[in-house]
Amino acid sequence: GQQVMQIPQYQHVQEGEDFTTYCNSSTTLSNIQWYKQRPGGHPVFLIQLVKSGEVKKQKRLTFQFGEAKKNSSLHITATQTTDVGTYFCAGTTVSGSRLTFGEGTQLTVNP
Amino acid sequence: ETGVTQTPRHLVMGMTNKKSLKCEQHLGHNAMYWYKQSAKKPLELMFVYNFKEQTENNSVPSRFSPECPNSSHLFLHLHTLQPEDSALYLCASSQVQGGGTSGGYEQYFGPGTRLTVT
After folding, report:
1. Beta bridge mates, B10
2. CA B117, chain centre distance (Å)
3. Nearest CA of chain B to the CA of A51: how many Å?
4. Which residue of A10, B60, B74, B85 shows the fewest CB atoms closer than 10 Å?
């Protein structure tokens, strides 16, 4: 079945450092979504990417969708303590079936 | 955020108990989902309901029984659970176009029910 893998599993950074999490799929995706889950909270939708090579920005967050539509990345510039949480990618196969979540990258930011 | 509510927020039950989890969405969406989130595991999709019809059952054991009486309410009935069923159970909803499946649509999650089976 479809697998979506994320690396790293954990990332500890000092406030002000950059952070990147990578998402890789075993199959070609029609789209990919990113979610953030704060400690003790629930996943909150951040963005969806659909086009090959697409890049979208939300303030300090930059999302990319690979040319082959099998990988994606989320980059945070100059992390802040409010960025703490687990970031999940979730992909949908070309057949348009269910959303499959990656294991997530847990980010901690030291002030 | 109050778009998707879940009750109870915490539940402790014995293996012989029967309990139900409730989810309600106030967003006018037409699809609802149950997910299981265990420690160190990805979010696992359990059930999908589109337009009140169950469209996906992701090989979930029969001790979990979903019910969707209308497009705003979703229940998960639990009976004879095992300790390994302890997890955070999340409900989500989305607006699906043309009777499609779960993929490709932004999902709005509720706060979850933290379930502990003793």
Report:
1. B114
2. 17
3. 12
4. A10
